[in-house]
Amino acid sequence: MKRKRIRLGVLILTTTLVLNLGVVADASTATPFGTSRWRAPRVTYVVSGSSYYRYIYATAIRAWNATGQFHFVPGSYAHHQVTLTTSGATTGQYHMLAGITFTSGPRNGYFTQARVLLLTRNLATYHYTTYDQIHVAEHELGHVMGLQHSTARNSVMLANNRYNGISRNDIYAVERRYHTPVGRHS
């Protein structure tokens, strides 16, 4: 009787170690986040641009809101934290980008404003499909939340991403970002 219990204990311990090693291996592809974030995982936004790009942003927002880790809430032009818009810029530092995010805030590490640009000329020049553009918007919204570029091939935060939607690692990173004190990163 004692031998069966010992064997069962060893089996459970071995299984636990194998499962934990899998988690550790997955942690190497975790989506990184920076030291800054919003005070809470909720911001207000406004969208400007054509109805097509309003659709692109709305779809990306629905995808992030569906994760339950962060909420983008419509604001007004007088009261909002995030501006989502487009630009036709294609020169200088923007010559190969599909989108760009600017964040600002006081020195205490909390964001107070953000501005996202989808670069429409580049999206057209490089033949981004509607789905590709939604993924670019999801990527830029990831930056708004405080996520950085990932090296994971399936991450929406992969630099130059156009094919990946939001992954489990991306969702987990947002959860961790808002449970990690300001000034600390992944």
UniProtKB/TrEMBL annotation:
Q: What is its EC number?
A: 3.4.24.-
Q: Which InterPro entries match?
A: MetalloPept_cat_dom_sf, Pept_M10_metallopeptidase, Pept_M10A, Peptidase_Metallo
Annotated Peptidase metallopeptidase domain residues: 34-180
- Signal sequence segment: 1-25
Q: Which UniProt keywords apply?
A: Hydrolase, Metal-binding, Metalloprotease, Protease, Signal, Zinc
Give one GO term, molecular function aspect. Answer: metallopeptidase activity
Q: State if Glycoprotein is listed as a keyword.
A: no
UniProt name for this protein: Matrixin family metalloprotease
Question: What is the originating organism of this protein?
Answer: Lactiplantibacillus daoliensis
